[in-house]
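Revision sheet: structure tokens.
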Amino acid sequence: MSDSRIYADLDQLVRLEHRARGFSFLPRQPIHSILAGRHASRLRGRGLNFEEIRGYLPGDDVRTMDWKVTARMREPHVRVYTEERDRPVLFLVDQRASMFFGSRRTMKSVAATEVAALGAWKVLAAGDRVGALIFNDEEITSIKPHRSRERVRRLLGAMVEKNHQLGKEPDPPANPDMLNEVLTQALQIAKHDYLICIISDFSGMNPDTKRLVTLLTAHNDVMSLFIYDPLEAKLPDAGRLTMAESGLQLEVDTGGKKLRQQFANGFTKRMERMKNISRGRSIPFLPIETSHDVARQIRDQLGASIGQGRRAATGK
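Predicted:
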């Protein structure tokens, strides 16, 4: 496994700008997007500002009719709105010890940085502000939302710095509570009309996680990007293996059917709990597997397939 598969590479994250296309965070989604359809996401997109009242023109939406002015002027008039110029997007990027795991293509921690980089470049291209909370088992790095290439590069650099601390001595103990701590900090930042993208394996989630996510959805939009490795979903019968985490090593016999079933059940339970939280609050849930190309997975789930044309690629 090459080093870039174990640790995030800043140059590669910068180059992902050219692959940040074919998907959109806007409410009008391509037909194949999981955000399209009557029962899909709560995503509001940018808000609307009132611009003016003018006379009705053929083709105007009757829902914008201002009936009071129409009655007073004795001619149909409509209210004209313009879309807000930008919208803050906050990426919550998990770089805890539980993310330092991978069996194919890349580590979960690297896949998380790829997701965040693709999202950040896309948000910037749409003219929105982009920020992040990047967390490991010890601390949270806060990047205030701003609309600039410098801010995106700062975000990428902060992710790489956190990522390269994984697996180094001394290895800090795992801290499952950091998931709720970063959600709490997001609540303090995102007061209204943010899009919050949680990029994590959701290790350590508990009833308080559900409460915090519910609070975030009260005045913001939330998206869950569940990062996982195929080995977590199905442990193979590979005999005796040595597994390591947070400086501890344990030899296990993967030939035991009971062990493999327990391993799979633990993963399924965690994934289903996050699915249920997302479903109950109309939050888009995107599973991202480490063994496949991240940009293609996002495009397939959140946007349009490759080759659907310039309109789909630009998210307009």
